[in-house]
Amino acid sequence: MTRVQANLLLLLAGIIWGMGFVAQSTAMDSIGPFFFIGVRSVIASLFILPFALVEGRRAKTRIRPGEYLSFIYVGLAFFIGLALQQIGLITTSVTNAGFLTGLYVVFVPVLGVLFFAQWPHPVVWPSAIACFVGIFLLSGGALTALQTGDYLIILGAAFWALQVILIGFANRSGRPIAISCVQFAVAAAAGLVLAVATEELNWNALMLTWKEILFTGVFSSGIAFTLQTIGQRYTTSAQAAIFLSSEALFAALFGAIFLGERISFIGFIGCGLLFIAMLAVELVPQVWKRRDEAPTPAELAEQKG
C-alpha cells in the first residue's frame, strides 16, 4: 500500500467518525457513558474478530507475548481517552469539547518528540497548528470559561494522541486487525466493569438506542478504527493525526445535513484550513523528496560530459 492510499484510508476513517457524532449525540441522552462505551466496544470486537482470525491464519509468524502487551496498551489509551471525553461532556459544552479534543493533533508530534524521540517531517508542525486553528473556527471561534469537564477533555486528548503513537509501535507486529480487535476487547471489558460499578444499567434505553449503538459499534469503532490501524502502517503518527482530524470537518458537515445545524462563515474558513493542512502533509513531502533527489547543475554537467 502506498502512503497516498494509506492517507485516503485515514480520511475515510475521519468521514465515518464525523457521521458517528450524529449517532453518539442522540444515544448519550438516555444511556450512561461507561455502558455506552462497553456495549459499542463489545459490538466492535465481535464484528472485527472473524477478520482478525483470517489475518492470523494468513500470517507467517505468530504474535509474541510482548506484542499482545502493546495491543493492550493501545486499548487502554483508547478507553481512557474515550471515557474522559464522555465524562467531560457532562460538564462542558459541545463547542468546547470539539475544540479541545482537537488538541490531539498538536499533542501527537509533541509527545512523539518528548517521549519517543520521533521527529516528524517539518511540514507537520505548521500543518498541526493549522488543523488546530481550523477546528477552533469550525467550532464557532469561541471558547467559554473552562470548567472541570474541559480539563478532562484536554487530558483525554493527550490519551487520544498516545493511542495514535502506540499504534505506530504496535503495527510492527504486522497484525493491524488483531490490534484493533484487542483494543475493542480491552475497552469493552473496562467499560462494562465500570458501568456495573457506577451506573444504573437501563436495558430499556439500550433497546431504544440500538440503531445508534449498532452504528457506532460497527462503523465508528469496528471499521473506522481498523482503517486507522491499517493506514498507520504506511505513514507516520503525526501525519496520520492530521488526516484523522478531518473528523471535525465531517462532523460539522453531517451535523448540518442530519441535525439542521449551520456552519458559520468562520467555520468555512476553518474547513479551508483543515483541507490545506491535509494537502500540505500529503504534497510537501513528495515535492521535498523530488527536490532532494534531483541532480544538481554540477551533476548534470558531469553526466553530459
Approximate shape: globular
Low-pLDDT windows of residues: none
Helical amount: over 70%
Question: What structural class should be given to the helix and strand makeup?
Answer: mainly alpha
What's the SSE pattern? HHHHHHHHHHHHHH
User: What's the gyration radius in Å?
Assistant: 20 Å
Number of strands: 0
Domain EamA: 7-139, 148-280
Keywords: Cell membrane, Membrane, Transmembrane, Transmembrane helix
Transmembrane segments: 37-56, 68-91, 97-116, 123-145, 151-170, 177-197, 209-228, 240-259, 265-284
Protein name: DMT family transporter
Descriptive notes:
This protein is mainly alpha-helical and 305 residues long. The protein has one domain. It has 14 helices and no strands. It comes from Daeguia caeni. Keywords: Cell membrane, Membrane, Transmembrane, Transmembrane helix. This is DMT family transporter. It is a multi-pass membrane protein.
How would you describe this structure in keywords?
globular; 14 helices; 305 residues; 0% strand; membrane; mainly alpha; EamA_dom; Diverse_Substrate_Transporter
